[in-house]
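Progress note, project year one: complex with magnesium ion.
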Amino acid sequence: MLSLKNVAVKYGSFTAVHDVNIEVTSGEIVVLLGSNGAGKSTVFRTISGLNKPSAGDVLFEGNKINRRSADQIVQFGIGQCPEGRKLFPAMTVQENLRMGGYVHRRKRDEIKHSLEHVFELFPILKEKRNDAAGSLSGGQQQMLAIGRTLMSKPKLMLLDEPSVGLAPLIVEQMFEVIQKINKEGTTILLAEQNANAALKIADKGYVFENGTIVLEGTSEDLFANDEVRKAYIGA
Ligand SMILES: Nc1ncnc2c1ncn2[C@@H]1O[C@H](COP(=O)(O)OP(=O)(O)OP(=O)(O)O)[C@@H](O)[C@H]1O
Ligand SMILES: [Mg+2]
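Model obtained:
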């Protein structure tokens, strides 16, 4: 479904990411692991069209999307839930969700249906639909960010560190919902520093260090790997 082939990304003269090869098959949950500054978000923004690769190709469903605009890429079916949530804090929960459905704005029934679907997944958002997004707790804001991404009905959802700053119990609930979204048919590419939670739901993963992939494998393989355990699981 998604292939990155020898992708490099530069910020000015600084090469943030190089020689990255990633394969995501339809139906999978794939996780990118790596510490601060390893290059996970740079890869995400390259897939979603906010960064352009300086080398290599990004293919989605067989088509090169390197040169497509972020807008077009959403229309192709890739939805990004960005690092740090990037909500509109003064707008209500429902208004934030409607922004996420912007690409389908002419299909009113579809928007209504998507909204109901998000409220089903996250009942708390329904309860708080008329509250300002900025008044929600951290966990609720993350749920809203995921819900907003779902409103574009992505085939592939990019989730950039959804668990950051959240209490363990909330993280657990969030990963359950992510798994549910996947079972309903959305392929998921996840960036995480919380390897423990991520590998539990992922099919496979890639470990980033200094802008490149140093290790890849099935979740079982990575979970059993001593270096991964030492660096990201702490056991
Ligand atoms: N806009 C930018 N301009 C210049 N350098 C950048 C920019 N964004 C990221 N970088 C650099 O690129 C490298 C990769 O950063 P990136 O944000 O992709 O890492 P990350 O794995 O997402 O880290 P984190 O876990 O902290 O989110 C880092 O060295 C970072 O300092
Ligand atoms: Mg990041």
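The longest helix spans residues 168-183.
The chain has a mean pLDDT of 94.
No further modelling is planned for this target in the current period.
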